[in-house]
Design a protein that fits this description.
9 helices, alpha/beta, 7-stranded mixed beta sheet, binds nicotinamide-adenine-dinucleotide
Length: 383
């Protein structure tokens, strides 16, 4: 049976995320496999139309991946009915207006996080999508990391007993640009350009915490701009105006306390760039990006505090690695596959623009907590 075609406008695909995760490892990979399988045994093949500001860059990307269709004119792409889906991975400040234009053109919309730079705009877009009855989605890639998939299975199996606390550590040293090239774009460090680690990471912490451990009830957060001067892609120094670290504590509705450290100014002494330690009455788990290790109540070493003697326990050896049990695919591709099935045959897809707005709500509240120096409640957000 020949695969049917689904036209997808892809905007912002010359960037890091747009190119690597969304175009190459998701859409092109799906195309190579013959498309997304549907429930009737047939396939749907995504057909991308690349959109970008710089014609040389977009054309050269199209050529590199073996595609023919590209444009610098978003308006004409949105007017083209052969492409019913709009995807956006542009820099954050450009997303809300482009998503609004796509919704007005009647497109189904899938996009990177954060959906906007403030809650009101995000909620407005979520309401618009619901009113227009188009399909919508936002990237929630961390849920599909093998380490977090293993952690979820442990939680669901009851292995941890009653969960007490979560300790999340995210980050690494992002070079300032003086001696070594920075590994992230400079706009990430300028608030006026949509930068800031709270805006970048708290949408993730929203779906990770609420998805794995339940509703977030309240939070307290302090941010910081630890490094005040950096060097950009063109070798020019600039003032870092956005937060490059955030230290937050969350109280969840079921009593779990979660702490999340997010920092681009920390040197890594842990197994991965993101680790989540979950302590429960019956056992503990430490999840990384791919791995997850566990310790049962029985295996827990009997630690006693005595700084006068050298430590006699090897704490690291008391953990067991959870074996791989699935063929873990790229999380962005998994979510694209579900979104395409959602568009074509209405398969369930829980990560819509309302979910994106909930992520923005957490950003807004973390910034408020930092500004006011107090705990803030997270009210349940509905359309
Ligand atoms: N899901 C995730 O884990 C994850 C990770 C990193 C970034 N992101 C999100 O993806 C989006 C893109 O981030 P990125 O790291 O790929 O950024 P990037 O700077 O590498 O790419 C940005 C894209 O937007 C385009 N663009 C349009 N106007 C621009 C401008 N004025 N300045 C610079 N670029 C401009 C660029 O050409 C490029 O295609 C952001 O919204 C970011 O929050 C998500």
């Amino acid at each position: 049976m020949a695969a049917r075609r689904l036209g997808v406008i892809m905007n912002g695909v010359t960037g890091r995320m747009g190119k690597n995760q969304h175009l190459v490892r998701s859409i092109m990979a799906i195309r190579e496999e013959g498309g997304v399988p549907l429930s009737d045994g047939s396939f749907v093949q995504p057909d991308p139309l690349l959109v970008g500001r710089n014609p040389e860059k977009v054309e050269s990307l199209a050529r590199e991946v073996g595609l023919e269709d590209w444009t610098t004119d978003l308006g004409s792409a949105l007017a083209n009915t052969a492409y019913p889906v709009y995807f956006d991975a542009q820099v954050t400040p450009l997303r809300a207006d482009a998503v609004r234009a796509a919704l007005e053109a009647g497109k189904h919309v899938y996009c990177e996080k954060p959906l906007a730079q403030d809650l009101d705009t995000a909620l407005d877009l979520a309401r618009m999508a619901a009113k227009l009855e188009v399909k919508s989605g936002v990237v929630q890639d961390k849920l599909f990391l093998p380490g977090l998939v293993k952690l979820r299975a442990l939680i669901d199996s009851g292995f941890l007993g009653r969960i007490l606390s979560v300790k999340g550590d995210f980050g690494y040293w992002v070079f300032e640009g003086h001696d070594q090239e920075p590994q992230r774009p400079s706009w990430n460090y300028r608030r006026e350009d949509g930068g800031g680690i709270i805006l970048d990471m708290f949408p993730h912490w929203h779906y990770v915490l609420s998805g794995l451990f339940g509703r977030i009830d309240s939070l307290v957060c302090t941010g910081a701009t630890h490094i005040e001067e950096r060097v950009d892609e063109n070798g020019r120094g600039y003032a870092a105006t956005a937060d490059d670290a955030a230290y937050a504590t969350f109280r969840l509705a079921d009593g779990v306390i979660a702490q999340m450290n997010s920092s681009w100014c920390t040197r890594v002494d842990r197994d991965d760039l993101l680790t989540l330690q979950v302590d429960g009455t019956d056992g503990s788990a430490v999840a990384g990006l791919r791995g997850c290790k566990i310790q049962t109540a029985k295996e827990t070493p009997r630690a006693t505090w005595n700084p006068d003697l050298p430590n006699s326990l090897d704490f690291h050896s008391g953990w067991t690695e959870v074996p791989d049990s699935l063929n873990y695919e790229n999380g962005f591709k998994v979510q694209w596959t579900s979104f395409i099935s959602h568009v074509v045959e209405d398969a369930p897809f829980p990560w819509d623009l309302l979910q994106a707005a909930r992520g923005m709500q957490l950003v807004d509240l973390a910034l408020k907590s930092w500004r006011d120096g107090c705990w803030v409640r997270v009210e349940e957000l509905e359309l």
